[in-house]
Amino acid sequence: QITDIPEDSIVSKTLVDNPAVKAVLFGFAPGQALSEHHVPQHAILHFLEGEADVVLGGDKTSAGPGTWVHMPPDLAHSIHARRPVKMLLLMLRE
Predict the structure, then answer these.
(1) Closest CA to 2 of 61, 93, 84
(2) Which of 21, 31, 71, 83 could potentially form a cystine with 51 if both were Cys, beta carbons 3.0 to 4.6 Å apart?
(3) What mean pLDDT comes out for the span 8-37?
(4) CA dist., res. 22 & res. 36, Å (int)
(5) Average pLDDT over the chain, rounded to whole?
């Protein structure tokens, strides 16, 4: 779904958006980041490609291909791509 990630950018494509779940595919160029934020529902990050630093409520961890991260509602988090990253975000609404 995302084949090219332009330099210095983050791209996204919504794959599913219904009352139960929203699924968004993200592509991060190296060095790009989502600053600290939170969402009001459970969310899952599934890293498909690349390497990133993920901060979850103040705890920093590394993520690579195959990494899954569960985030409870309202957990502050941020993501910084060290290499080109493709990541699936699932926001669970029910």
Answers:
(1) 84
(2) 83
(3) 96
(4) 20
(5) 95
